[in-house]
Specification:
SH3 type barrels; alpha+beta; Alpha-Beta Plaits; 3 domains; three-stranded antiparallel β-sheet; five-stranded antiparallel β-sheet
């Protein structure tokens, strides 16, 4: 059948290979560490048997090419190459776990796994079955060009996703804002797209190629604190310093904003009718913007009412009032205008 000096090692490698696959499946997905240990131990044992039996996994000996021995020899080498691929992938899992890589690293992980399986497949075809790899690679290159032309958009998303992952512009859980105004928390990244969970609890799917081309602001770095600034127009009936003091008290009394760094009041402009005041404050995270603004607006109204201030009429309302009254400005009424920055 085949050389006696090869018979026992090859049979033993087949037994170890199939036993490793069986034990690996018995471990289950819930025990990744156990699976990894099984992969490494069985591959190391198979390699040791190859070394002791002086059997090359890269080619079949003439003694192995006779009758049923050819099937056993090829099976042993295929199992060895398969366990080699699984061991390399297992060490990749160890590297990711030790270095605490973020969950978005699965893009690079999947790509490396694909390269490993492709390399092992070509090795089996060339070294075990003796098929010429050169023509196969050349033919595969032509096919790859045709597929690449047909899948330009998909490939653009793929490589954009890899570039974004390597650049670490954002991570899972970060709150980002795109240049078109879309914003949300990064819920998932995959080969094709990045999923954002918006403040309205909707999932926005952004293709990676589109995300790579747009300007992006990461609101979660260096931390989640987020500044808000919006303007309030106060009727010019009191001194600016008095208005500043009142608005500062409004901000100090707000419970949804954080006090470090402290909120600030900026006097932006003044004319005969209006004093423009900008309220600047910080919230703990982008998700707290709406509750904070709602509370500040409510406190501004209460503060103005309690201290005899009037919210100024918008300029467009004054122009409309002048037209109605034949050129005389309309009386100042309580109104509010804000402009989020």
């Amino acid at each position: 059948m085949f050389g006696e000096h090869h018979s026992l090692p090859l049979v033993l490698i087949n037994i170890l290979g199939f036993a490793g696959i069986l034990v690996w499946h018995i471990q289950g997905r819930g025990r990744p560490t156990g699976r990894l240990i099984v992969q490494i131990l069985f591959f190391a044992t198979m390699s040791l048997v190859l070394a002791i039996g002086r059997i090359s996994p890269y080619e079949l000996d003439n003694a192995d090419l006779m009758g049923a021995g050819s099937l056993i020899a090829k099976s042993a080498r295929i199992l060895w190459w398969t366990h080699l691929a699984w061991t390399i992938i297992g060490f990749l899992h160890i590297y990711i776990a030790i270095n605490h890589k973020p969950r978005e690293a699965h893009l690079l992980h999947d790509m490396i796994v694909a390269v490993v399986y492709l390399g092992v497949t070509l090795s089996v075809i060339g070294f075990v079955f003796g098929a010429p790899i050169g023509p196969l690679v050349a033919t595969s290159g032509v096919v790859a060009v045709i597929i690449g032309l047909a899948l330009q958009n998909t490939l653009a998303d793929l490589f954009s996703g890899i570039a974004l992952t390597l650049g670490r512009a954002y991570g899972i859980g970060d709150w980002i804002r795109l240049s078109d105004g879309t914003e949300g928390r990064v819920a998932e990244t995959n080969w094709r797209s990045t999923n954002l969970l918006t403040g309205a609890h909707n999932v926005v799917v952004v293709p990676n190629s589109v995300l790579a081309k747009q300007g992006m602001t990461n609101l979660s770095r260096p931390d989640e604190t987020h500044w808000i600034a919006f303007s309030v127009h106060i009727a010019a009936t009191r001194a600016p310093s008095v208005i500043e003091e009142i608005m500062q008290g409004v901000l100090q009394g707000c419970e949804t904003i954080i006090k470090v760094p402290p909120p600030a009041v900026a006097l932006k402009a003044i004319d005969a009718i209006t004093i423009e005041v900008e309220l600047q404050f910080c919230v703990a995270s982008p998700a707290r913007r709406m509750p904070a603004k709602n509370e500040v607006i409510d406190l501004v109204y209460r503060g103005c009412t309690a201290n005899g201030l009037s919210l100024a009429m918008p300029p467009q309302s004054l122009l409309w009032g002048s037209a109605v009254t034949g050129g005389e400005p309309a009386a100042t009424v309580k109104s509010f205008s804000s402009n989020a920055v």
